Amino acid sequence: MTRKLIRNGLVVTGDPALGDLSDADVLIENGTIVSIAPQLEIVDAEVIDARNRIVMPGFVDSHRHIWQGALRSVCADGSLVDYVRVIRMHAARFFTAEDMYAVQLHGALEALDAGVTSVTDYCHNLLTRDHAFEAIRGVREAGIRVVWNYGFNYPPQADPSFRTLEDRIDFARELAETEFAQGDALVTLGVAPEETNFAGSPERLSAQFALARELDARVFWHANSGGVGGAAHRDVAAIASLGALASGVTLVHMHDTDEEEWRMVADSGAAVAFTPETELQMGMMWPSTRICEELGIPFGIGTDITSNNSADMFAATRIGLQALRCYYLDSTEKSALPLGTPNSCADAFAWATIGGARALGLEDQIGSLVPGKQADIVLLRTDTIGMVGWDRDHPARTIVQQARPSDVDAVLVAGEFVKRNGQLLGDVGRACELLGAASARVHARIRESGGFDVPLDETIARMQAVSRSEDGKYDFAR
Ligand SMILES: [Zn+2]
Questions:
Q1: Both 41 and 71 in a single domain?
Q2: 272: CA distance to ligand 1 center in Å?
Q3: Spacing, Cα 225 to ligand 1 middle (Å)
Q4: What's 41's domain CATH number?
Q5: CA distance 155 to 84
Q6: Is 81 contained in some domain?
Q7: Which helix (H) or strand (E) holds 194?
Q8: Spacing, Cα 197 to ligand 1 middle (Å)
Q9: Are residues 210 and 285 part of one domain?
Q10: Which of 141, 245, 299, 389 is the most exposed place for a label (fewest CB within 10 A)?
Q11: Looking at the structure, do residues 53 and 180 belong to the same domain, yes or no?
């Protein structure tokens, strides 16, 4: 048996019954939390000194496309249309399997470095079989907990490797057997079907949801997030009519959802993932957290794409909270003298931890520090230049409004250190070198093809090719 004892920290459990515990200890046995209390008796354990540390559950990022790390900031001034034009219908196809390994390894380490212990990796650029194998290898090597999503989106290509949807469904079955059968607790399988406007037909969409049920894999799905042209899709109603709206589904973005559909979501037990930074930038607007709170719909938040914004969950949480406060305060009576502000930092902390765990369907295992749960734990320094002087009575306020990735002192996943004394234990130098090289290759290929700036009518032709055929075969020289 291996035991670790995290000693004398300010423990923010994220659990309503346990609350915040000052000068408390966390005992871990074989990767599981077994006890949290002040002054635990020292047993035969490795002792970790947590004085001047906040001890908190690791962040759970409920929506991220790790593979876009090689395109960092390319869409930082872009709209949703630009994102589809520049990345999804263009840059995506220039990734090789080798590039996928590099971005996945690096991106998972980047997440861990910033205190993210679990992530939904919506991996929707699986151009070939090897792209999938290498993507999985990269995240697995990093040691992060990940629900790796087999993404059905297939960008337009001159010579697609998969010719039919059935080919890709068969390959997903093969991956489930070869890569996910051994009960590896850290890396599990999810399924990300195509959006309604790319799936082309209800039958095609239905087959992708059916595969997830067959594999007992959670579904993560971009829904009601506005198509190019801004048309509402009523995606929730669409999958409900296919019998696919269920508790094993996490719906992403969802700003364009009417009340009837929200009630359908609540009745089904499905969860939601919001990504405040991309949603604010790209006209997907304010995350609909309040209606989820009112209807009891579980939701988490995520960082989405580093082609737009950072992979920093501190920033995502803070920006999401402040945007929502602005939104709700803007609608209050101008002569009012409001005390307090809509949503607390503790609310936002919950979105980024236990809320994310619910969105991943892993709330029994992660998202809060409770005996019996996995020891996915972050130690935050409180003696750094930006943290010292903090309000010890309200640690969530400091975590959400003040802390940054450089304050992350240590990170444990399933009780194993992946970051310690402010340094990742993985080979960061190698990961950065690999990512730098992959990014340079992808950029070079895009330059050779004429650059990022694809005309909109050309983008629409590519989108039509993708939605009309199962392989998205497209003649780029036409
Ligand atoms: Zn997304």
A1: no
A2: 12
A3: 10
A4: 2.30.40.10
A5: 10
A6: yes
A7: none
A8: 14
A9: yes
A10: 389
A11: no
| Cβ atoms within 10 Å, residue 67 | 28
Residue 443: inside a domain, yes or no?
no
Number of domains composing the chain: 2
Cα 361 to averaged position of ligand 1 atoms, centre (Å): 18
Q: What's the CA-to-centroid distance between 393 and ligand 1, angstroms? A: 36
The rounded Å distance from CA 122 to ligand 1 centre is 7
Expressed in angstroms and rounded, the spacing between residue 449 Cα and the centre of ligand 1 is: 25
The reported pLDDT for the residue numbered 227 is: 53
Cα(67) to centroid of ligand 1, in Å? 11
Residue 404 lies in domain: 3-57+369-424
pLDDT at 242: 96
Q: Are residues 123 and 184 in the same domain?
A: yes
Q: Measure 134 CA to ligand 1 centroid, in angstroms.
A: 20
62-115 pLDDT tens trace: 999 999 999 999 999 999 999 999 999 999 999 999 999 999 999 999 999 999
Q: In this structure, how many other beta carbons lie within 10 angstroms of the beta carbon of residue 15?
A: 17
Nearest to 165 by CA among 178, 155, 152: 152
pLDDT, residue 275, reads: 97
Distance 428 CA to ligand 1 centre (A): 26
Ligand 1 mean position to 304 CA, how many Å? 5
Ligand 1 centre to CA of 222 (Å) is: 6
Q: Is residue 464 part of a domain?
A: no
Cα 267 to the center of its chain, rounded Å? 24
| Cα(383) to centroid(ligand 1), Å | 36
Please tell me whether residues 53 and 112 are part of one structural domain: no
The answer to whether position 67 is within a domain reads yes
Residues 39 and 143 in one domain: no
d(CA 188, CA 178): 12
Cα 340 to ligand 1 centre (Å): 33
Domain end position, chosen among 362, 385, 409: 362
Ligand 1 centroid–CA 364 distance in Å is 25
Cα 413 to middle of ligand 1, angstroms: 25
CA 424 / ligand 1 centre spacing (Å): 27
Q: From 406, 424, 442, give the residue that closes a domain.
A: 424
Handedness of CA 148, 152, 156, 162 (dihedral sign): positive
The pLDDT of residue 323: 94
Are residues 320 and 377 in contact, defined by beta-carbon separation less than 8 angstroms? no
| Same-domain check for residues 132 and 203 | yes
Helices (H), ranges, 333-427: 345-350, 356-359, 395-401
Check whether residue 115 and residue 260 sit in a common domain.
yes
| Regions of the chain short of the pLDDT cut 50 | 228-229
pTM: 0.97
Report CA(64)–ligand 1 centroid distance (Å). Answer: 6
Supply the angle between the helices 129-142 and 97-113 in degrees, to the nearest 10.
30
135: domain CATH number is 3.20.20.140
